[in-house]
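> @MW can you paste both from yesterday?
MW: sure, first one:
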Amino acid sequence: MSPTSNAPRSLHDLQNLLRDDIKVKVAGIDVDGVLRGKFMSKDKFISAASESDGFGFCSVIFGWDIHDQVYSRELLVSNKGNGYRDVIARVDLSTYRRIPWENNVPFFLVSFFDPDTKEPLFICPRMTLQKAMKEAEHHGWQCMAGAEFEYFQFKETPHSIAEKGFTNPTPLTPGMHGYSLLRPQLNKEYFHALFDESVKFGVPVEGHRTETGPGVYETALAYTNAARMADNAILFKLVAKSVGMKYGIIPSFMAKPWGNLPGCSGHIHVSIRSQDGKNIFAVKDSELKHGREGAANEDTKFLSKEAEEFLAGILDGLPDGMPMLVPTINGYKRLVGGESFWAPNAVTYGYDSRAASVRILSPPSVAPSATRFEIRIPGADMNPYFAFSTIFLLGLRGISKHMSLTIPPVSQMQSDPEKKKAVTKLSTSLEDATIKMMKPGSVAREILGDAFVDHFGGTREHEVALWNAAVTNWEVERYLELV
């Protein structure tokens, strides 16, 4: 993992770093991308950090859902059959930072390992991403990523919204005011605290603004290596929710809280660099004038051959990888609107196109060193570790298989109705997406392994079962009186 600038590099460093502290906060990540953690005494923490086996952490965090309801069927890691036994949690010293809004208490992330084999736990989000990072390292490459979150702000507390039955939340500000210079003045202390506290917490922010929609902000996190980016993405949500509590505000990363308004995206940007920092996706300097000879089309002529193969790999595996990009029931409601809400729901790509699922950013719109892909499918409710893992593993699979682009860009589809009709649509429900992911021989099974797909797929089947059994306000309103 990429270290924070002042991370301890030895046990001696750690002891010096914590000499004036009495406790430490640690956290790991569950399958829904939720931080699960606790306080430890300084002595217990230093002891755990100094031991290669780490410390025991109840495996139930992989055996229950986002509301601590035990999964409806036995899964591979945590279940009644093994007594919800401990897995191993190992402290990642490189993730050290202090929590500025919590008396500067020291904070570290942990990763999870199998207690029998001592190997990385296959369902641990941080370890899943490490699989993709190691795959790139075999080529001498480094995975790079960025994340942008759109999220609503509601003038609510956990108690007030519960008392309202989680209906009609009050937006922090009215109206649709993207890029507004006026709206942030209405809650300027909160707006600025989101940026400032994030930076103090070791989560650099690249951009921070209002997005269209009542009370919607967008925050872009600074581009870095994919492992650090996933950590930063998870930790930014912690920042936002913690700062929001102080001001009586709930920032929501739910993908589609309003039926008649645009949803909240979690766009991710990806590229690959060589060990000397060269962008593998960029074309050679000699190709900057006319583009690369042999490119699939005009939209990809300023991409390297490896980038084009990476893109082909993403497009080939998107249908089977959807639950890792859009893991919630609600996330698919965002995709139903399709291009009308800039939430693409098909296997498409295009040069600098926000109507495509994969937006190509390359010369002349950006410098060669900034050449990258923006994956526009995920919502703000994504688990960034699983989303990044899937995109990089699909792309690297495309490179290893030397895949060719077999579909045209969206620019060609606009002028050719037949090409537009032939486009592959992505799942618009978690149930359908999970079936595709779990089918024998799926691309998801190829890149992530059967154990991961069976366990994670089981958690998604549980989510679907709860949704299918739910009676919604829409149903009651529509049918109670008149049918």
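MW: second:
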Amino acid sequence: MTWLIGKFAETAAYGFAVIVLMMVYEVVARYGFGAPTFWAHEIAGLLGAVAFLLGGAYCMIDGSHMRVTALTDRMPAGLKWMADGLALICGAVYLAALTFSGWQIAERSLFRFMPDGSWFPERSGSSWNTPLPAFVKFALFLGAVLFLAVVLQQLVAWLRQGRSSSEPDRAPR
């Protein structure tokens, strides 16, 4: 599972390089030739949003997510173990709710049909009027599902670890 999330996130991370190239192109086209693009900002928004949404699960796997450990570093091992578990449980509850609501939002946005049966997803309303907002909302759902899977995996590992195998108590610094 973690390799799949890693591949998704690494692929999405290339979106940042594409954003840089598109913005360079946009600046040159706009200020160098007086011919701005109508698509660069929408695509950049989509790529950035997808990369950030998929990046959360990857950072959790990699251990590179931000943690404020000023209090937990000073706790005895047993209390630290309980605090870690509480954080994982709270994260799982939050991500489960985000997954549920993310699906509802994505479903209303992506699976829209006209009376004649033709597909008509939510559109941006810009001059290009693309269905990109619908895909960003689906990416929110997908990112929440993947992040929830990682948190549940770590919660199971936390339960298996148990308090008995926690780190020894450390004196506060």
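> thanks! The helical segments are 2-33, 40-62, 77-110, 132-161.
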